[in-house]
Predict the structure of Phage virion morphogenesis (Putative tail completion) protein.
Amino acid sequence: MSDLQLVNDRLNALINNLSAPARKEMARTIAKKLRASQQQNIKRQQASDGTPFKPRKAQPIRSKKGRVKREMFAKLRTVKYMKVQATSDEAVVEFTGRVQRMVRVHHYGLRDRPSRNRSEIQYEPRPLMGINQSNLNLIGDIVIDSLSS
């Protein structure tokens, strides 16, 4: 057995020694911190690995002149659409309701119709959610703080 597996088993044993409400509170804290991290990534218009989102496509010639003044996904990063769920076994950050479909299209770069009367458009992949090394370090810190208290 590798050393990493041994550490993982001992850490799981320590976490399982916590009471169910304590584990749930730890999971809720982790989910809230991850949501804040994802909201910041969306605000900065970048994926979790730091690469910037692909810019919007240029509008057709006949459309209005001027630049688009609002940023992409401004409403999606609000608490109304990014919900946190926590149980004693898991922490979940997810998009809710009707926006899940739109998020899936943009996250994976799928084809979709922007409105009923328009033709399908191939969207650029813009990963809205993801885990990076700083998130993993944050989760580790929260787990250590929960175990030490």
Q: What stands out?
A: The radius of gyration is 20 Å.
